[in-house]
């Protein structure tokens, strides 16, 4: 099993700190952008340079706040890596190992589905608030587009939109990753591109409970802290707490169906 990460776009302070703080797991990092490649290599990571340019400009040319197809890059990375290595564990930079990967981890994950991705949620009231109370035109447009799409491409649970969280993706099926890329392109999915593609694929076969039984991994729970989409002030702290309370309740629901043995945390 090959652990994989990726980077594309413009390096900034937040991304730099995430990379510097990451424990090297002997992963391979798929990188768009020669400057990005040189920086990540300098931090001791093995890298594959996908392109000298920071974006695949046939996909997008800016951060996902401004170009809503941007996250298709992640699907491309996962597809390339699965084709190259056969079996991968893709991790976002803020997905942290807290327990040594051992035979229990490898045996249990390989005995499960060919793709395993945890679920997370967006409280409907919080997403509405991000639109109604935002004075920034770019952010308002972004969250409005997100809400429009997430209504179509998510499970419903107790006042929350629930969908796959692709910060952790185990996969050993390259035909599936190709299919997800095709879905994204055919439907021209926007914003949470890779998560919507996976939802479309899984929801055609599984209810929410069946997803948890078959696709939810045992080794990680849902992402916390309001997903980093609002900036630090009193309003953020209040909303983040609400968001985390919802996520904690959802994690309890998931754990009532799927036994957990946590190896990773996703901040």
Secondary structure layout:
Elements: E1 2-7, H1 13-21, E2 28-32, H2 34-42, E3 46-51, H3 72-85, E4 88-91, E5 95-97, H4 103-110, E6 115-116, E7 119-123, H5 124-132, H6 137-152, E8 155-157, E9 160-164, E10 168-171, H7 174-187, H8 193-203, H9 208-214, H10 234-257, E11 264-266
Parallel strand pairs: 1-2, 1-4, 2-3
Antiparallel strand pairs: 4-10, 5-11, 6-10, 7-9, 8-9
Helix pairs in contact: 3-7, 5-6, 7-8
Strand content: 15-25%
Number of DSSP strand runs = 11
Outline the low-pLDDT stretches: 226-232
Kindly provide the radius of gyration, computed on alpha-carbon positions and rounded to a whole number of angstroms.
Answer: 18 Å
Task: Sketch the major β-sheet.
Answer: 6 strands, mixed
- Assign an overall shape: globular
Order of strands across the widest beta sheet? 3-2-1-4-10-6
Q: Mean pLDDT across all residues, rounded?
A: 93
Helical residue percent? 40-55%
First and last CA, distance: 24 Å
Q: What is the CATH architecture assignment? A: Alpha-Beta Complex
Order of helices and strands: EHEHEHEEHEEHHEEEHHHHE
Structure annotation, total helices: 10
């Amino acid at each position: 099993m090959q652990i994989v990460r990726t980077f594309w776009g413009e390096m900034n302070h937040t991304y730099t700190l995430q990379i510097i703080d990451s424990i090297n797991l002997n992963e391979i990092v798929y990188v768009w952008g020669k400057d990005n490649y040189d920086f990540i290599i300098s931090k001791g990571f093995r890298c594959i340079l996908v392109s000298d340019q920071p974006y695949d400009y046939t996909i997008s040319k800016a951060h996902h706040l401004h170009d809503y197809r941007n996250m298709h890059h992640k699907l491309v990375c996962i597809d390339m890596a699965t084709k190259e290595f056969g079996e991968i564990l893709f991790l976002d930079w803020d997905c942290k190992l807290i327990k040594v990967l051992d035979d229990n981890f490898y045996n249990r994950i390989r005995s499960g589905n060919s793709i395993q991705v945890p679920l997370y949620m967006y409280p409907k009231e919080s997403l509405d608030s991000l639109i109604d109370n935002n004075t920034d035109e770019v952010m308002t447009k972004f969250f409005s587009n997100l809400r429009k799409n997430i209504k179509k491409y998510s499970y419903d649970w107790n006042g929350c939109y629930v969908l796959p969280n692709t910060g952790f993706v185990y996969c050993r099926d390259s035909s599936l990753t190709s299919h997800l890329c095709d879905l994204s392109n055919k439907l021209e999915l926007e914003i949470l591109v890779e998560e919507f593609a996976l939802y479309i694929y899984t929801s055609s076969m599984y209810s929410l409970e069946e997803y948890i039984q078959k696709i939810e991994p045992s080794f990680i729970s849902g992402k916390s802290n309001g997903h980093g989409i609002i900036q630090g002030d009193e309003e953020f702290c209040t909303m983040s707490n609400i968001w985390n309370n919802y996520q904690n309740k959802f994690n309890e629901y998931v754990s009532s169906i799927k036994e957990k043995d946590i190896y990773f945390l996703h901040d």
